[in-house]
From TrEMBL:
The chain crosses the membrane at residues 29-53, 65-85, 105-123, 143-161, 201-229, 241-263. It is a multi-pass membrane protein. It holds the Pfam family 7tm_4. It comes from the Eukaryota. Keywords: Cell membrane, G-protein coupled receptor, Glycoprotein, Membrane, Olfaction, Receptor, Sensory transduction, Transducer, Transmembrane, Transmembrane helix. The keyword Isomerase does not apply. Belongs to the G-protein coupled receptor 1 family. GO terms for cellular component: plasma membrane. It is found in: Cell membrane. Residues 44-293 form the G-protein coupled receptors family 1 profile domain. This is Olfactory receptor. GO terms for molecular function: G protein-coupled receptor activity; olfactory receptor activity.
Length: 315
């Protein structure tokens, strides 16, 4: 810490992240576990991207969005896990103030796009199942690109707003963050100034990034469920529920952990629990997504086999 230019108070120039554990004996084990998880996650999501690229059957709007989701998962886990691995190797984690704020921005940018992309995927399933005759025109390439652009724009505004709001807070000590990456709740606990505005911004952000998307997803799937139950063929119902079930599983994991993390700002003692939720949100969810989307999907499974064996798709 160094003296502030605005007075006698000291200003934090770096944060010390406590990480997952202070037990030096456990750190090599955690390093191996999370390095394995990172490699599996990046490899799995790149495999999904490769499968979508090489398989003509997967050149559809649903897999266009899934490809973007895989890119976001790679980005989210890369923002948090490699710095954590470096800290485990060094047995300490001193993060410069600017690096901490940057990590905060990129994490919320990528996670925010994830939120709205899941909503776009639900809308895609609604059009495909409930409006099949107009699906191809209402979900054209232009519409797909526009939806992804809207997701990115909303998330950028949200992430920039929170980052600027945090950057104007006073951090005059202590500078120890009880987490393994820089995030809003643990930084709020260290602020010397009022976080009332930040709490209000977080509430508004949670509404636009969480509540509204969840309402839209719920409405879309209510229509989908009603339409699927009207399908007479048992095989048709099974196929429709299979594709929607994968998406709903990802939605439940992502939003469940997200709401748990950000709706309990008043609970200072919950920081250790937040580390577990952070692992679910930043590591487990991106790692499971390729498994969830490919487990019951023969088209993706076939494309993955061709990617791994080097065979060309059938003409």
């Amino acid at each position: 810490m160094e003296p502030s230019a605005w007075g006698n108070r000291t200003t934090v120039t770096e944060f010390i992240l406590l990480g997952l554990t202070g037990n030096v004996g456990l750190q090599p084990i955690l390093f191996a576990v999370f390095l394995f998880a990172y490699v599996i996650t990046v490899g799995g999501n790149f495999s999904i991207l490769a499968a979508i690229f090489v398989e003509p059957k997967l050149h559809t709007p649903m897999y266009y969005f899934l490809g973007n989701l895989s890119l976001l998962d790679i980005g989210c886990i890369t923002v948090t896990v490699p710095p954590m691995l470096a800290c485990l190797l060094a047995h300490q984690c001193r993060v410069p103030y600017a690096a901490c704020i940057s990590q905060l921005f990129f994490f919320h940018l990528l996670a925010g796009v994830d939120c709205h992309l899941l909503t776009a995927m639900a809308y895609d399933r609604y059009l495909a199942i409930c409006q099949p005759l107009t699906y191809s025109t209402r979900m054209s390439r232009e519409v797909q690109g526009a939806l992804v652009g809207i997701c990115c724009t909303i998330s950028f505004i949200n992430a920039l707003t929170h980052t600027v709001a945090v950057s104007v807070l006073d951090f005059c000590g202590p500078n120890v963050v009880n987490h393994f990456y820089c995030d809003l709740p643990p930084l709020f606990q260290l602020s010397c100034s009022s976080i009332h505005l930040n709490g209000q911004l977080l509430f508004v952000g949670a509404t636009f990034m969480g509540v509204i998307p969840m309402i839209l997803i719920s409405v879309s799937y209510a229509h989908v469920a009603a339409a699927v139950l009207r399908i007479r063929s048992a095989e048709g119902r099974k196929k429709a529920f299979s594709t929607c079930g994968s998406h709903l599983t990802v939605v439940c994991i992502f939003y469940g952990t997200g709401f748990f993390s950000y709706m309990r700002l008043g609970s200072v003692s919950a920081s250790d629990k937040d580390k577990g939720i952070g692992i679910l949100n930043t590591i487990l969810s991106p790692m499971l997504n390729p498994v969830i989307y490919s487990l019951r999907n023969p088209d993706v499974q076939g494309a993955l086999k061709r990617v791994l064996t080097g065979k060309r798709p059938p003409a």
